[in-house]
Structures are given as C-alpha cells and as structure tokens.
Amino acid sequence: MSRVVRDEITEVHGEESVKAYGNSTVYAYDESVVRAYDESVVKAYDNSVVKNMSPHAIVVDTRNMKIVLNPNSPYTTTKE
Amino acid sequence: MSERVVRDKNIEVRGDETVEAYGNSVVNAYDNSTVHAHDNSEVIAHDNSTVDAYDNSEVIAYNDSEVYAYGSSTVETYDKSRVIGYDKSKISARNNSKVYAHNDCMVFAVNNSTVKAYGGSIVYAWDDSIVYAFDESVVKAHERSIIGNKSPYAIVVDFRKMKIILNPESPFTLEKEG
C-alpha cells in the first residue's frame, strides 16, 4: 500500500512507497519507490526508484545528474 | 523588557515583551514584540513583531514582521514581512514579502515577493515574484515571475515557455523515460 501525498513536502526512507500529487515535493532515499504525478518534484537519492507519471512532473536523478521527464513532457532545456 | 512563558493558552503580546509559547498556544503579537513558538503553537504577528517558530508551529505574519522558521514549521507572510526558513519549513509569501529559504524548504511566492532559495529548497513562483536559485534548489515559474539560476546544480522550470533553464555550468542532462 502506497502513502499518498498532495501539496506536501516529505521524505521517503527505507522500502516505503509514495504517490505524489499536486505540487508535492519529495526527497526519496534508501530503497524507496516514488511515483510523481501532476506538477510534483521528486529528488532521487541512494537506491530509490522514481517513476515520472506526468508530463508536468520533474524527477531529478542526483546519482546520474539527470533530469528525468515523462515521455509526453513538452519541456526542452536551455542554458542561460 | 519582560518575559512570559505560556502553555495551552490564547494570549496577546505587545510592546517589548517576549513570550515563550508551548503546547498548542495561540499568540497574537503586536508592536515590536517577540514570540518563541514551540509544540504546534500558532502565532499571528503584526507590526514589526519577530517570531522564532519551532516544532511544526504555524505563523501568519503581517506588516513588516520577521519570522525565523525551523522544524517543519508553516509560515504565511504578507505586507513586506521577511522569512528565514530552515529544515523543510513550508512558506507562503505574499504582498512584497522576502524569503531566504535554506535546507529543503518549500516556498509558494506570489504578489511581488522575492525569494532566495538555498540548499535543496523548492519554490513555486507566481505574479511578478522574483526568485534566485542557489545551491541545489528547484524553481517552478508561472505567470509573470522573474527567475535567475545562480548555481550549476539548481533547476528552473519555466511553465510559460515549457523550458528547463539550467546554469551555463550545469552538469545535468535531460532524459525522457520510456
């Protein structure tokens, strides 16, 4: 059973599973599993597994220095 | 200058008085007074009052008040008030407020507010707000907000142009799942 957060700032540790909705901010550690919906932002650390479920959600993979987007995301990057 | 300690009380504090509020107290602070709020206490600060908020306290600050937020406290600011937030505090800044967000704070900035975001803080910006992203912060910019990416590890998401704006020195690359 996943914990559901909406418009919250939260940490996930251990093997916990979380679904993040609205404008939530999630810091994922250890072996946790997070699904990012709506406009949520998830930062992935350690061995966490984060899935980007929404075109407007942002997943930051801090291990590989990657910004992971949904396949339907409209975003492009620019450096300025 | 006098000092009071209250617990589970609903009080007003004025002038140069300082109050230590514990245990779900509710404090209305006026006229340069100082409140140290603990244990889920609630403070409504007016007129240049200063609040130190600890342990999930809630603060609403008006009229040039200043709030130091720790321990996942929640702060709403209006009218040129200032917030220095730490430790996953949640801050809503309105009407020309200023926010310094450290250590993974979550900030909602509207109505000409200015935010400097440090650590891993996340900022959602609307309505002519100005946000500077330092360290590993993430900023989501809506409407007429103005954003500056000041760090290689910060990320700015511009909703108007559907762009992710990175610092010129950023090591991040973009990947689409699938």
Describe what this molecule looks like in 3D.
The complex is a heterodimer of chains A (80) and B (178). Chain A is mainly β. Helices cover 0% and strands 51% of the residues of chain A. Chain A is built from no helices and ten strands. Chain A has strands at residues 3-6, 9-12, 17-21, 25-28, 33-36, 41-44, 49-52, 58-61, 66-69, 76-79. In chain A, the strands form two sheets. Chain A has a five-stranded mixed beta sheet with strand order 2-4-6-8-9, with no helix packed on it. Chain A has a four-stranded parallel beta sheet with strand order 1-3-5-7, with no helix packed on it. The mean pLDDT of chain A is 94. With 178 residues, chain B is an all-beta fold. Chain B is 0% helix and 51% strand. Chain B is built from no helices and 22 strands. In chain B, the strands form two sheets. Chain B has an eleven-stranded mixed beta sheet with strand order 2-4-6-8-10-12-14-16-18-20-21, with no helix packed on it. In chain B, strands 1-3-5-7-9-11-13-15-17-19 form a ten-stranded parallel beta sheet, with no helix packed on it.
Largest sheet of chain B: 11 strands, mixed
Low-confidence stretches of chain B: none
Amount of beta strand of chain B = over 45%
Secondary-structure element order of chain A, as H and E?
Answer: EEEEEEEEEE
Given helix and strand content, the structural type of chain A is mainly beta
**Stretches of chain A where pLDDT falls below 50 for ≥5 residues?**
none
Helix-residue proportion of chain B? under 10%
Order of helices and strands of chain B: EEEEEEEEEEEEEEEEEEEEEE
Counting DSSP H or I runs of 4 or more residues, the number of helices of chain A is 0
Structural class of chain B: mainly beta
Main sheet: strand order of chain B: 2-4-6-8-10-12-14-16-18-20-21
Order of neighbouring strands in the sheet with most strands of chain A: 2-4-6-8-9
